[in-house]
Amino acid sequence: MRVLLLCSEYEGLIKTGGLADACRGIAQGLVDAGHQVTVLLPQYTNLYSRPTGEWHSVYFHLGGRPLGCAIRQLAQASQGGVDIRLLEHHDFFHRERPYDDGDQGYADNPLRFAFFCKAALEWCRQYLPDVDLIHGHDWQTAVTAAYLKQHYAQDPVLGRVPFVFTIHNGAYQLTAGAEWFGKLELAQQQDHFLNMLEQGIRYAAKVNTVSQGYRDELLSEPAANGLARLYQQRQADFVGILNGCDYQQWDPATDLTLIKNFDSTDLSGKAACKQQLKARFHLPAADVPLMVAVSRITGQKGYDYLIPALRQFLALSKVQVFIVGSGEQHYCRQLYQLQEDFPAQFRFFEGFDETLAHQTEAAGDFFLMPSLFEPCGLNQLYSLKYGAVPLVRLTGGLQDTVVPWPDQAATGIGFSDVSIAALLSALQQAEQLYLQQPAYRAVQLRGMQQNFSWQSSVQSYIQLYQQALTEQFSRS
Ligand code: ADP
Ligand code: GLC
User: Fold this and answer.
1) What angle do CA 208, 393, 237 make, to 5 degrees?
2) Mutate to test the pocket of ligand 2, among 5, 24, 168, 401 (most ligand atoms within 8 A of CB)
């Protein structure tokens, strides 16, 4: 199959969260399974790579306005056989951050990403005429589904191409006033406003999200954020496909960012990693469990109740906690305050630092992920592999990937209620488990031996593609 994958982030080039990891995992997995994959994403200012290969220019009208862009190719050798194309448009994408200025989302986001989708289709029909299927990710690519149905139904190339839509996070929908339907040349619905995510769910041939658990949650409110009825309407075409873990990037036995490598047969390297992290951040060398988190600092990740729960927990226990993350300032201020109040036990590193993310996974005895909701979550998969026993709220993909203590097959600690009390009790359970070393070690080693490789996820995507193609073929 020849697949065009549209995304707004790609690991190794630009990343704000797990979307980047997942897009690369899927693209690489498809190539490894023998398929041809072209990835198209915007060229932001601070992309880690510069294009060198062939380039095309594309011109079209959108909302009565003439627009154009260049599409350039990256050297393929550096990308594991994935053909990467970068869409260059100075006004729309020559910005430091993909979606916001660090505080507010850009006001022209609907136009920026509708432009991206329309340009992708115009480029595809001219330069990738043998494409079999287009696979888009999240709201940024969602209107591709509407354009295919509304602008290209009769096109000799695009008229036969199904669109598969993956939702990595149903809470990010991007809504805009009703005037945007016209500006973006989208068929107006009865709604008062435009919801970009909804356009993908409504018009894609197949829709999936990144775990079975989250897929089921999206069928009702409040998890669906207002779109439950639409998910229900599309239920027959809506599936859950769990993300994988890229063990080429995330394996403590080979990870080049670690001071010492380790695996489940010899954990001495992990002790060295813990010692190094503690020394770097001036945490006392005391022999106590180190609990870590690496995350976007946002409500989704549970900071509203994690911070007060940690405040109570640190007052009661000697455990140390290290958090690396970036995001909403009101949480960051509270994390700095926690650091001031518990100088021997708590450290916060504010920033997006991929090397430190790896080193933190390697150093942690536990990994904290008390998310309010979690479509899949990749950090718990990384932490399983790195022997940082995940402590998770049992929701969405977390529930699908972590078996909670005291189950015989436990790989982590779990709890359900969104409450300070429930989280505090899970933190205490973790500390107790750590004190029973053989039991802790068994949970840790079982986690390290789990396998969540992309291969099986990609097989499920291939099946979904085949269904979409078969149904498209029988319609035409
Ligand atoms: P989400 O996509 O909701 O942010 P995931 O667990 O799926 O959550 O993926 C998060 C990804 O982003 C992981 O690869 C994680 O290491 C990375 N990440 C998050 N915050 C940071 C940070 N501050 N520095 C480096 N990497 C980060
Ligand atoms: C989103 C979700 C996260 C998921 C990631 C990759 O950012 O919040 O749960 O793992 O996408 O699919």
Assistant:
1) 15
2) 168
Residue 297's DSSP bridge partners are 327
pLDDT digits (tens, 9 = 90+) for 188-227: 877 789 999 999 999 999 999 999 999 999 999 999 999 9
pTM for this structure?
A: 0.96
Taking alpha carbons only, the member of 364, 358, 387 closest to residue 256 is: 358
3-state secondary structure of 298: coil
In angstroms, what is the span from residue 378 Cα to ligand 2's centroid?
A: 7
Strands 83-88 and 36-42, how do they pair?
A: parallel
Output the CA 225–ligand 2 centroid distance in Å: 16
* Strand residue runs (E) in 250-401: 290-297, 320-327, 346-350, 366-369, 389-393
Least confident of 48-52, 192-196, 253-257, 397-401: 48-52
Strand pairing class (55-62; 65-73): antiparallel
Please give the structure tokens belonging to residue 26: 């899927």
- DSSP codes, 343-355: TTTEEEEES--HH
Closest C-alpha residue for ligand 1 atom 13: 18
Alpha helices in 128-203 (DSSP H): 143-151, 179-183, 196-203
CA dist 271 and 263 (Å) reads 12
